[in-house]
């Protein structure tokens, strides 16, 4: 794979979860994972005003593996857990801004038509709109300490579901809760997953960190100014 050249590229991969009004009974975890829709719109407007260009993980992988040029100020927008607001709120805002996003899908939630999560019809609409639809396992369970059969079911099963419903292969992965161990990495390597993102903080990506890519967490309460601070990177040092 690749042309044999080792590369390091700094590209922020933003990590989002809920983009929705905060429930009245929200606990600290929900507050941390939630960005209000008007704040999200302001963040996206900031990115557009500042000349950022959204790319997907396939473009970043091509740049790392083959030296394929990226647009100026590239950025990856990722959305975990396949919440319904990714279709209702995020998709229209991204389309309005001319942006693309990468959505990590819990395929078992789509299978059951849980109204709090994306269903397969909505997911296909997002694919057709140019969004990247990738795997977040079938059940979003902690993958650590599991046997091989469990891992293959959760990982391979989710990729097979995505291909069956969307008519195209997916090659990118996101660890549930950012949790994984050596057995998970081994199965991911055997499956030939191209890139996997973590919850570890950072913006530097290398040719050989294929399965442990860092991201930039966008926490609740982070406005456009806060996003500018995160993108500046001074918090990394």
Count, helices:
9
Q: What CATH architecture do you see?
A: Alpha-Beta Barrel
Percent helix: 25-40%
Count all strands and give the number: 12
Overall structural domain count: 1
The outline comes out as globular
Radius of gyration: 17 Å
What is the CATH fold-level name? TIM Barrel
Q: Could you name the ranges where pLDDT drops below 50 across 5 or more consecutive residues?
A: none
* N-C termini distance: 32 Å
Mean pLDDT: 96
Name of the CATH superfamily: Glycoside hydrolase/deacetylase
Helix and strand sequence: EEEHEHEHEHEHHEHEHEEEH
Largest sheet features: 8 strands, parallel
Q: Quote the beta fraction.
A: 15-25%
Q: Given the helix and strand composition, which structural class is it? A: alpha/beta
Q: Indicate the CATH class.
A: Alpha Beta
Short description:
The chain is an alpha/beta fold and 237 residues long.
Question: How is this structure best described in words?
Answer:
The protein is α/β, with parallel strands linked by helices and 237 residues long. It has one domain: Glycoside hydrolase/deacetylase (TIM Barrel), CATH 3.20.20. The chain contains nine helices and twelve strands. It has helices at residues 28-33, 37-49, 57-66, 85-97, 107-111, 120-128, 148-166, 182-191, 224-232, and strands at 8-10, 13-16, 18-19, 34-35, 53-54, 74-80, 102-105, 132-135, 172-174, 195-201, 204-206, 213-217. Strands 2, 5, 6, 7, 8, 9, 10 and 12 form an eight-stranded parallel β-sheet that branches. α7 (148-166) packs across α8. The model has no long low-confidence stretch (mean pLDDT 96).
